């Protein structure tokens, strides 16, 4: 198969969809890989490394899109890319269709096959291509929180781990899933006094077993949250209710109960945020202050650490990309239920229920769709 890797053009996106190691894996299997010039530079991979691994370097985005039967990307295509995507071309990337109607219509009209990283799903309902970015964001949440607690950044002026003779900072983590666990682990490692609140008792039992002694768990409810915020120095929002907006566990009115300089890092901001006063910010301007409480609400935290994020993402995506290249999307999706869940839009049809529901579009069952396309494998 011919596989093309364009350079990401979304603002401040430095990740790339394949590393030179990934190119080597694919070309060793007899596939042709095309990489747009400088696509990997933001993640530390120069064109020469890709060429050495067997890729052909193409100078423009137009030539790169035109070269591939499968386009492998990181971010959802943005408007200038819509017209570059052709009928029957397979596009394997994050799409987040439900949050962008113009993208959904553009992909339906293109006739392409859109396999979305974020809906590839394992039997246990985990999302293997979202987990790596949650791991990055969780670890970063503590790092950023510790930074903004410093006085020059208008934080309380407290060192997360304290020092001998001085108590450490108190960190409250709302949600003990992937983000929350990684955030708590980092905070505990730095010596902070950490509390994780979640609704799931089995999850808290697990966390209680595996976390060090300076991490405790507590049931998430309004009473406990109101008590904990009074003396928390850093509060990390990491809740997720799949397919729904995050609940506002901290309301605007609760800010007055916090101490001046308390830092809020709402990682769940991409789902609306679990802190009412959080609105999405960018890496250029990541924070704002309301009622003396500092808010950090960057919606694409992993974008700030592209070296780590690219490797974390491609470690997870490459096995799927190889399967798609080896079998073609039709057979790969028939054989592998995880990949099948990733199909969102294909040959002009919406085959993912959440996307059809979001925009009231006709829905085609993915199994019926695959059965009807078997035998006409134009991209395979
Ligand atoms: N800002 C970013 O750059 C970025 C990056 C990655 C992930 N995220 C977001 O971070 C959020 C968390 O992701 P995740 O991968 O950890 O999800 P997850 O499903 O692994 O964990 C969510 C946890 O929240 C818990 N929860 C649900 N309701 C709760 C409540 N009322 N109180 C306390 N806990 C509650 C669940 O029991 C679960 O343990 C998501 O919104 C995700 O999109 C943001």
From TrEMBL:
Binds 1 Mg(2+) ion per subunit. SUPFAM superfamilies: Formate/glycerate dehydrogenase catalytic domain-like, NAD(P)-binding Rossmann-fold domains. GO terms for cellular component: plasma membrane. PANTHER family: ALANINE DEHYDROGENASE (PTHR42795). One of its GO terms (molecular function) is metal ion binding. It catalyses: L-alanine + NAD(+) + H2O = pyruvate + NH4(+) + NADH + H(+). It holds the Pfam family AlaDh_PNT_N. Its EC number is 1.4.1.1. This is Alanine dehydrogenase. Residues 149-297 form the Alanine dehydrogenase/pyridine nucleotide transhydrogenase NAD(H)-binding domain.
């Amino acid at each position: 198969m011919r596989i093309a890797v364009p350079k990401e053009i979304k603002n401040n996106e430095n990740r790339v969809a394949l590393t030179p190691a990934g190119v080597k894996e694919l070309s060793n299997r007899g596939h042709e890989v095309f990489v747009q010039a400088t696509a990997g530079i933001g993640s530390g991979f120069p064109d020469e490394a890709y060429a050495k691994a067997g890729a052909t370097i193409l100078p423009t985005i137009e030539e790169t899109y035109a070269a591939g039967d499968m386009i492998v990307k990181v971010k959802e295509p943005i408007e200038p890319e819509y017209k570059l995507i052709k009928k029957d071309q397979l596009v394997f990337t994050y799409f987040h269709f439900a949050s962008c109607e113009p993208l959904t219509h553009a992909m339906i009209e293109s006739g392409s096959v859109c396999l979305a990283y974020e809906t590839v799903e394992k039997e246990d309902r985990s999302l293997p291509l979202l987990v790596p970015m949650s791991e990055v964001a969780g670890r970063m949440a503590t790092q950023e929180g510790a930074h903004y607690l410093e006085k020059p950044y208008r934080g309380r002026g407290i060192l997360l781990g304290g020092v001998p003779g001085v108590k450490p900072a108190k960190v409250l983590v709302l949600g003990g899933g992937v983000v929350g666990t990684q955030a708590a682990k980092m905070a505990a490692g730095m010596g902070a006094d950490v509390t994780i609140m979640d609704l799931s008792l089995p999850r808290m039992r697990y966390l209680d077993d595996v976390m060090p002694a300076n991490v405790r768990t507590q049931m998430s409810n309004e009473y406990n949250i109101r008590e904990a915020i009074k003396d928390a120095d850093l509060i990390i929002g990491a809740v997720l209710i799949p397919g729904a907006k995050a609940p506002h566990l901290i309301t605007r009115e609760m800010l007055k109960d916090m101490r001046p300089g308390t830092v809020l890092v709402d990682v769940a901001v991409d789902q609306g945020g679990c802190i009412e006063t959080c609105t999405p910010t960018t890496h250029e301007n990541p924070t704002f202050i309301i009622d003396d409480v500092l808010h950090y609400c960057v919606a694409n935290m992993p974008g700030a650490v592209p070296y780590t994020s690219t490797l974390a993402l491609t470690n997870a995506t490459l096995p799927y990309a190889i399967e798609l290249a080896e079998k073609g999307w039709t057979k790969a999706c028939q054989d592998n239920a995880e990949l099948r869940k990733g199909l969102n839009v294909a040959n002009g049809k919406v085959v993912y229920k959440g996307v059809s529901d979001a925009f009231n579009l006709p829905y085609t069952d993915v199994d019926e769709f695959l059965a009807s396309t078997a035998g006409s494998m134009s991209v395979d």
